[in-house]
Amino acid sequence: MSGAVLDHRAPGSAPSRSGLARIAAEIRQDLAYRPRPWRRDPARRAAHLRRTVQIIAVLLGSVVVADVVLLAGWHGPDGRRAAVGERPWAALQRNAAGSGDAAAERREPVPERTAGEPARPSDQPTGGSPVAPLQRLHAPHVLVVAERPLGAEVVAAVRGTPGVAAAEVADAAEIRVDGKRVPTMGVDPSTFRSFTPEVTARSDTLWQNIADGAMAVSFDLGRDGGVALGSTVAAGGLRLRVGAYATVGMGSIAAIVSRRTARELGMPEGNALVVSAPKTDSARLRARLRKILPKGTQVVVINPVVVPPKGRTAWPESAFLTAEQVQTVLRAAASKLGSPYVWGAEGPDGFDCSGLVQWAYRQAGVRMPRVAAQQWATGPRIPLAEARPGDLLFWRNDPTNPGYISHVAIYWGNGMMLHAPRRGDVVKISKIYLRNFAGAVRVSPQAAARVG
Length: 452
Fold this sequence. Notes:
This protein has helices at 17-26, 42-59, 98-106, 152-159, 189-192, 198-201, 204-211, 219-223, 259-265, 282-292, 323-334, 353-362, 372-375, 445-451; strands spanning 6-7, 66-70, 93-95, 142-145, 166-177, 180-187, 215-217, 232-235, 238-245, 255-258, 272-276, 298-301, 381-382, 392-395, 407-413, 416-419, 428-431, 437-441. With 452 residues, it is of the alpha+beta class. Strands 1, 2, 3, 4, 5, 6, 7, 8, 9, 10, 11 and 12 form a twelve-stranded mixed beta sheet that branches. Helix 1 runs parallel beside helix 14 (445-451) and helix 2 (42-59) crosses helix 3 (98-106). It is globular.
């Protein structure tokens, strides 16, 4: 792992046909949650309501409503399962925000500052617990997200599962950050840092910022979502300082806060586990974990350990899109030329890069996963010289996690690509550029369906 964390104060080969289905199911490189709303227990809800009334009486103001949604299996308001292709955190639950308002009043706004400027006195850490030095690194392989907090016995059982080298307890929810719905984790900075990319894990400044109440956001959310480094943003009823850009390489997780801040945000406590099992086949590990975890718990492979099948053969042509499907994808994508880039958008009027790909392929009846890192696993890697119109092109543009797939485009032919480039730009056809180019993928509908 190489690269540099941007702190606020610091500058394949093809598998065999017989193994296709199994490998495609295992190589989930991102998250695919279908959340159910978090429900507070009645006593807690009553306490929050009383606190809200007190705040209204004192401030004579309106109640700010915090939006929080679990990253777990969601059923819509009509009771049906979230449909394939829907945004996996598509529902929000309103929570009483008395505690959030009070916390916001206690936090002093920090003047906006861009990366690279010298620190101001008000930017210095204020009151967080000292963060322990980095010990050893643990590659994360599986992410567990439950509807409700995981008990101590369940956590112990996961840690005792054969093959598990380490497991870190965290909080997982979606909150509104600067008006955007952002999948967020609440973590212990002293221990969670060991499960992140090395350049991130080694940044004492970053983790102390988080311990002191700041939020770290992914490079993508910062650059294309417009969440400025050093700014103070509205987040779930609080005002939080954006202390760093740091992509932690756990799929759709786009923001990190301390568990103390997560409590103030009203996030569920201890409903997630990051599991490291470097010597165990990830598919087998998932099966073991599902037997000991509560019913409905999501077990998602984020960095798979795969035992390849014996023998190799070429992928059959029938594994890929038909000529008619390819033309449908291209026509659909071209119909959105000029549409604005919007971080997290899936159409029909605005798109981010992977949202455009998912939408265009859906028009051809292909179920694609949502984010670029998942789409990277939807078929065999091919040389760029062999790319055909409709194939996907990928880049690794994130300086905070150089190994992470962060951009995708649709190959148009003749050295051109169709994509949604970045914030402030529109869907367009451009010449292919090779800087940070990761490779090309020929999509297999069967593989794509199993990844997403």
